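Question (not urgent): is this output format expected?
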Amino acid sequence: MPWSSWYYTYMRSARAKELVELLSPPGPDAYCQPPFSSVESGLAQIAAEGPDGLSADTLRDDLEWLARVQRSVEAMSAHWLAELDRREQEAPAHLYSCCIDWLQEKLHLTPNAAYAQLRTARQLEHLPRTMPAFMRGELSAQQVSVICRAMGQLHQTCLDSAEVESELVGAAHYMDPRQLHRHWLQLRYAADQEAGLEAEEEQRRRRWLQLEETWSGGYRLEGELDVESGATLQTALQGLMAVRPKTTSARPPSAGPTPWWRWPGAAWTRASCPSRAARSRT
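Got this back:
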């Protein structure tokens, strides 16, 4: 083997070893053995190869593969989390611990994110079509969240759960999360207008809007609105942002007089300087 090839192979293996150490999470020795160590070693080898010598088509294929792997891992994590939650719920009172608290402490999630992750994990256990598709990497976490929320609202309608789940999983293959959510709203309204109107009314009752002045004098707008209120606000803001503020040469009242050295050249002379005039009067 030529020296250059040997050196390249050696550096690549050294880089892979370094990446394995970076990817290996601290914890029990079990993670240093297969299958965990095999997964980490494989990812480290892929990372050591790097994307530099790959064609654009290969990069796209690799990104698609990595996305499928990431989604599969997220599905496994949801399955593990649901099992942990089930065991903690069944534990004696003196041994009970909350998954949400653990997610916040160990994974540094906000309370809302931790609750949403646990709620999704619980629902996935009862969705026989969504979970396998998620495990195969066909659905993103956002799409799964939309499906879980829809299935959680299904009891308020007369729709069949199996049919709705199949329809949403199929639509997720060509819709992004926002489109999928709108598709669910259309399905619900077309099949059960009363339930659709009730859901709209519930969203309207939950609407809120807060306009807060910041310490720097600007304003921060936060809230959650229903469809009609949101569209109205968006139209109003577009009209407001389109209006350009009038420019004026007048200074704010609190700014004080302009120093003479900042006056335009044609507007002053040394003789007209206020300080000079004041000195000449004394």
